[in-house]
Write a structure and sequence with these properties.
Elements: H1 5-8, H2 14-27, E1 33-34, H3 46-56, H4 71-85, E2 95-98, H5 101-112, E3 118-123, H6 128-135, E4 139-144, H7 160-165, E5 166-172, H8 184-197, E6 200-204, E7 230-235, E8 248-252, H9 254-265, H10 273-284, H11 286-310, E9 323-327, H12 334-345, E10 347-348, E11 350-351, E12 362-366, H13 371-383
Parallel strand pairs: 1-10, 3-4, 3-5, 5-6, 6-7
Antiparallel strand pairs: 2-8, 7-8, 9-12, 11-12
Helix pairs in contact: 3-10, 4-10, 5-6, 5-9, 11-13
The protein binds pyridoxal-5'-phosphate (PLP).
Length: 395
């Protein structure tokens, strides 16, 4: 058997190594506190489960769904965008259902890249962007998004030879893994950049509903002329604790949305209709749930940020997402620090380098873990003298 060249292009997967180390630590009897995975620990709320329970008993939900999403689901997405972002979307050609946004993101590269075309990607960033670019035969070109540029790529300084081959720019705000948010100025600038160079602006908006301190993330579609050049990928996964359900949407630029739909039509068969009905219920009554969930995440965030700051870090609390992005103390690499931390304290964090070279020197904590575990994690760090102002000497 010969495997495809495509498979050989996949970069080594750091997270597989973390899983292996986690298994080893577990086998040694270490009690692990997993602050690694970005998957909500809380259940899907009851009001959504109730809608699902009813829908699943209706046999008309059991056959093949439509490729684009049911008219009712697309209408619910359109209504939600109107209510939440004041963005109007035509449910017929500016909304497409996705089997989770990861699916749509991966297929976007197949939709918009020819071999040799460049995709401009954030570094660090969600690993799917790079791999899907390679699968499409495209070339990733990484734009650093780091503390020094306020976690916003410098779009004014890209080599014209690169720009002329670029067809897409991927952005992700609020950001995984850094927890960073985008300024309004930057988002408007990104739209203008896309229009000027005819580069499709792709916004991964998975975290717009996880926010704190009165800050409210915006959709890129709120900005002037966005629908002429931007497509946004959204998801019910992180907002409603529905990661296992696989439901998301692509919205915006109608030709782009429909082109993506054309690729998908030939690959998948839509979202289970009962899940779409649950999704409609989720979006229709999102406000009370989102509010209470964010209050809970905010408490967790404060435990971790205050805890680390007492150990010498100087973190600003993120205004959105359930991630905390912190510098590695001492002069270990991200990977070494994370592995040592796991072995010595049982606390599992993700090395920043797993999201790209510009993530080196950082680690990511996910607060999708109950408060008492977070408190315990901080006290383990303290006990093992993991602090920011000196090389950690864990025993
Ligand atoms: C979780 C996540 C997604 C994908 O979520 P789906 O479950 O596939 O909708 C996309 N982008 C980022 C940055 C994420 O963290």
């Amino acid at each position: 058997m010969k495997k495809s060249e495509r498979i050989k292009k996949i970069p080594p997967y750091l997270f597989a190594e973390i899983d292996r180390k986690k298994g080893e630590a577990k086998a040694k009897g270490i009690d692990i506190i997993d602050l690694g995975i970005g998957d909500p620990d809380l259940p899907t709320p009851d009001y959504i489960l109730d809608a699902m329970t009813e829908a699943i008993k209706d046999p008309s939900t059991h056959d093949y769904p439509s490729y684009n999403g049911s008219p009712e689901f697309r209408q619910a997405v359109s209504d939600w965008y109107q209510d939440r972002f004041n963005v109007s979307l035509d449910p017929n050609n500016e909304v497409l259902s996705l089997i989770g946004s990861k699916e749509g993101i991966a297929h976007a590269f197949m939709t918009f890249l020819d071999p040799g075309d460049i995709a401009l990607l954030p570094n660090p960033g969600y690993p799917v962007y790079e791999v899907a670019t390679l699968f499409a035969g495209g070339e990733p070109y990484f734009l650093p998004v780091t503390e020094s540029n306020g976690y916003q790529p410098d779009l004014s300084n890209i080599d014209p030879a690169v720009l002329s081959k670029s067809n897409m720019l991927f952005l992700n705000y609020p950001n995984n893994p850094t927890g960073a948010i985008a300024t309004d100025d930057f988002l408007q600038q990104a739209i203008e950049f896309g229009l000027k160079h005819d580069i499709l602006i792709c916004m991964d908006a998975a975290y717009t509903e996880v926010y704190y301190d009165g800050y409210k993330p915006r959709s890129i579609l709120e900005f002037n002329r966005a629908k002429e050049i931007a497509i946004e990928f959204h998801s019910l996964s992180k907002t409603f604790n529905m990661t296992g359900w696989r439901i998301g949407m692509a919205v915006g630029h109608s030709e782009a949305v429909q082109a993506l739909g054309k690729i998908k039509t030939n690959i998948d068969s839509g979202i289970f209709k009962a899940v779409q009905r649950a999704g409609i219920a989720a979006l229709k009554n999102y406000k009370p749930f989102v509010k209470s969930q964010n209050q809970l995440y905010q408490k967790r965030r404060d435990i971790v940020v205050n805890g680390l700051n007492q150990l010498g870090w100087n973190l600003e609390a993120p205004k959105a997402t359930f991630y905390i992005w912190a510098k590695v103390p001492g002069n270990k690499t991200s990977e070494q620090f994370s592995m040592d931390l796991l072995e010595n304290t049982g606390v599992l964090v993700v090395p920043g380098s797993g999201y790209g070279s510009a993530g080196e020197g950082y680690f990511r904590i996910s607060i999708t873990t109950p408060e008492e575990k977070l408190v315990e994690a901080i006290s383990r760090l303290k006990k093992h003298h993991v602090q920011f102002d000196m090389t950690p000497s864990p025993q």
